[in-house]
Write a structure and sequence with these properties.
With 247 residues, the chain is α/β, with parallel strands linked by helices. It has two domains: 8-20 and 114-246, 3-Layer(aba) Sandwich (Rossmann fold); 25-111. It is 49% helix and 11% strand. It has helices spanning 25-42, 50-71, 77-88, 94-111, 118-127, 142-151, 174-184, 198-207, 238-246; strands at residues 8-11, 131-136, 160-163, 191-195, 211-215, 230-232. Strands 3-2-1-4-5-6 form a six-stranded parallel β-sheet, sandwiched between helices. 34% of the residues are buried. The mean pLDDT is 96.
Length: 247
């Protein structure tokens, strides 16, 4: 076996495994807010008027995002919702908090699609002995993301998943890539990392000693991936690419 033979692939989530496309962030936030506000009202919670509820949540989210940019880590959406809810006097079970978290994510989930042959591609990679995993920068709680992956029919291929809010660092910090390598039990030099961001995915995985693969998406239009970086249009190109790379 060659020293740099590919034995594992780690994937980004958004615009890589799950394609959301360009979104109206504020529009989606309003829909999410309405869904969660209705849910709280239906369960007899003393919820403020919709506009106050919506903009209060938006302000809190923006503050958290700014702090994440400063400190280089992500927050857990579920814990933030619990914190806000406790301040406002909501009385909800753990299961209900998970449902609230899902409702905030639901409008974005509705926009997502996957490649039509994604399950076949992942199955071929897995059957070939390639270990698979996910590393994603996100503040969305794992309950909602894992549920989405299950509904898309691909969770079964990803026993190992890293969501950045679970760590004190995030991409492009090489530590999160090395944590992913340890997670799937493959040396970094034997791993391909597939993502859509040049700044976070390509540069970060390269610093960790992995082979970066850029998936073309609107997020990298007009950006140079760098010398020698492999580029794909679809996940379905990976089996042939690995076969060629390993030969």
């Amino acid at each position: 076996m060659a020293d740099n033979e590919i034995e594992g692939i780690l994937f980004d989530l958004g615009e890589t495994l799950l394609n959301f496309g360009k979104v109206d962030t504020l529009g989606l936030f309003k829909v999410s807010g309405r869904l969660s506000w209705d849910y709280l009202q239906q369960r007899g919670q003393k919820v403020r008027g919709f506009r106050r509820y919506l903009w209060g949540n938006l302000l809190n989210l923006q503050v958290r995002i700014v702090l994440s940019s400063i400190f280089g880590n992500d927050f857990d959406s579920l814990e933030v919702l619990r914190w806000l809810g406790n301040k406002r006097g909501y009385q909800l079970s753990n299961e209900q908090w998970l449902e609230i978290n899902d409702l905030w994510y639901e409008p974005l989930k509705r926009l997502a699609d996957t490649e039509p042959d994604i399950k076949e591609t992942l199955g071929n990679l897995s059957n070939a002995g390639i270990k698979l995993g996910i590393i994603s920068n996100t503040f969305v709680n794992s309950h909602s993301l894992d549920k989405h992956l299950a509904e898309a029919g691909i969770l079964e291929f990803f026993e190992h998943r890293i969501y950045s809010y679970q760590y004190s660092f995030r991409k492009p910090d090489k530590r999160i890539f090395l944590a992913g390598a340890e997670m799937i039990g493959v040396k970094a030099e034997n791993i391909m990392y597939v993502g859509d961001r040049v700044d976070k995915d390509v540069k970060g995985s390269a610093k960790a000693g992995m082979t970066p693969v850029l998936k073309r998406a609107y997020t990298n239009e007009g950006k140079e991936p760098g010398d020698g970086v492999l580029v794909i249009d679809k996940i379905s190109e990976l089996p042939a690419m690995i076969g060629k790379f390993n030969s």
